[in-house]
Amino acid sequence: MKIFIIFYRYPRCTFNRPCGILARAMENPKENPLPLPTIRRYPIFLRAIGEMMDAGEAFISSSVLAERLGLDPVLTRKDLAMAGVPGRPRRGYPAEELRAAINRALGWDSATDAVLVGAGSLGSALLGYAGFKEQNLSIVAAFDANPRLAGSTVHGVKVRPLAEMARLVRRLKVHLAILTVPTAAAQACAETLVEAGVRGILNFSSAQLSVPEGVIVQNVDLAQPLAVLSHAIARHG
Amino acid sequence: MKIFIIFYRYPRCTFNRPCGILARAMENPKENPLPLPTIRRYPIFLRAIGEMMDAGEAFISSSVLAERLGLDPVLTRKDLAMAGVPGRPRRGYPAEELRAAINRALGWDSATDAVLVGAGSLGSALLGYAGFKEQNLSIVAAFDANPRLAGSTVHGVKVRPLAEMARLVRRLKVHLAILTVPTAAAQACAETLVEAGVRGILNFSSAQLSVPEGVIVQNVDLAQPLAVLSHAIARHG
DNA sequence: TCGTTATCGGTATTCAAGTAGCGATATGAA
DNA sequence: TTCATATCGCTACTTGAATACCGATAACGA
Fold first, then answer.
1. What pLDDT digit, counting tens, does each position of B57-75 carry?
2. Can you list the domains of chain A with their CATH numbers?
3. Any residues with CB less than 8 A from the CB of A201 and at least 6 apart, and which?
4. Fewer Cβ close by (within 10 Å): the C or N end of chain B?
5. Which of A5, A132, A216 sits opposite B3 (nearest CB)?
6. Which pTM was predicted?
7. Distance A160 CA to D11 C1' (A)
8. What is the b/e burial string over A50-68, where b = at least 16 CB atoms within 10 angstroms of the residue's CB?
C-alpha cells in the first residue's frame, strides 16, 4: 500500500527565456543526448522538411509536419525542440535552420566516406540506394571475396578484391563500413576493418559481432520488421 | 514534493504453480500480447536456437542464450517466458518446444505466401534473401511496372507486369505484400493490393501509406539505422 | 544419500519514452 | 488599434520496458 502526499506548485511558464529541453539543446548542440526514438524519426522529418521547402515553405510548424507523417503533434514538437532551434508562435520553425540543425545532430552536416564489404545482391542494392546521398554519405569503395565479382563496376562503384581492403581503408582514412557479407565471414571482415581504422559498422549480416570498445556496431535485421508484421497479422487479422 | 509511505510485504515465490507471465502465455497462446521489443528479438533467438539444436543441444538455458547474443540473462528469460513454455531448473527450456512456441507466437508456424512489388535492385535482393525461407515465407509472385523487367526471372521467381497484379493476388489469395517500388508509386500500389485482399504490407519505400483500418503497414527505413550509427559516431567518436 | 548450485519464475523498482494540459506570445483578422 | 487564435515550450503525469532481487527447485557431484 502506498500513500502519496503531494504538495503541488502550479507550473510556471517561461516562454521568453528557454530553460528546458530547448535551452539544453541550444547550449551544447554536439553533446546533446537525443532519445533513440527521436534519432530514428529524424530521417523521416528531414525528408518531409525537404519536400515542404521544395514546395516553397519557409517555416515548418509541428502540427503540419505531424499531420503529414501521421504522428502526434506534441511528440513532433518535442523532437524538434531537441534540435535546438527556437520556433515562433503561429509560424513554426525556420525551415532552413531546422534542417541544418537536425543534420548536424545526426552528424550528416559534413560529407562522410564509407566502404561497402560484400557486393552480393543486397550489397549491390545498397550501392544503388539513393537515400545515402541525401545523408551526405558516399561509398568510395566496394569489396568482395568472390574473384569473379572483383573488377566489375556496380552502380558506378568499382568492386575490388578483399585482399586490398585493409590497405585502401587505411589509405583513404574511412571510418564507416557497411557489411553485407555472409554471416560466416562477418566477424573476420569486421576485425580487418577495425584494424584498418573503421569506427562504425552497419551490419546487415546476422552475426553477433564482437568488436573492441569504442567501435560502434549497428545491426540491421530484415527479419525484425517481418516479425512485427506477421505477429500483428496473426493477432488482429 | 512527494512523500511515500510504503507498507512492504515480502514477495512470495510461487514456483510450482505458474501465475504470472508464463501462466498467461500458456493459457491463451494466440491472444497473448507480446511487447514490441520482445517480438523484435524473437527472430534472433530463433536463429541462435536453431544453431544450438544443430550442435546437438536438446535444452536451451537463458544464460547460455543471453551470453551468445550479448543480452541480459534476465531479459532473455522474460522474453522466453512470454512464449509460454515452462523451463526446468539447471537445464533450461526444451529446445524443440521452445522454437515451435516462438514460431507460433510470430505466426511463422504455417507457410505464408507473399508477393513482391517492384523488382528493382532492392526488390531483386529481397527475392534472393535466404532469411525469408527460415520464416516459412514464400514469395509466390513478383511484379514490376517496367515492361523490360517483366518476363525475366529473378532468383527463381518470374517477374510479371503490374497490370496482372490485382487479378493474380486475388486468385492466389495472398494476404502479405513486400513493397519495393519508388516512393511516388507506393500509395497507388498499396491501394491496388489492399483492394485485392492484402492485409499486411512491408513497406520499403519512404512514402507514408494511408490504408483502411484493419490493414497493417510495417515501414522499413534504411536511413534509420544509419542515423543511429552516425549520431553515435558523432557523439562518441 | 545429501549438500551444492545453476537456473527458473515471481514481485518490486527504476528508467525512458510518450501523453496531457496549459501559460505565453506573435501573427493575422476585424 | 484591438482581439482572437494557432503554435510554441514548459511541467507534470502515465505507460511500457528494462533491471534488480530473491525464493523454489531439480540436476549434479561428493
1. 999 999 999 999 999 999 9
2. 33-106 (1.10.10.10), 112-224 (3.40.50.720)
3. A176, A177, A178, A179, A190, A193, A194, A209, A211, A215, A216, A217, A218, B229
4. N
5. A5
6. 0.91
7. 57
8. eebeeeeeebbbbebbbeb
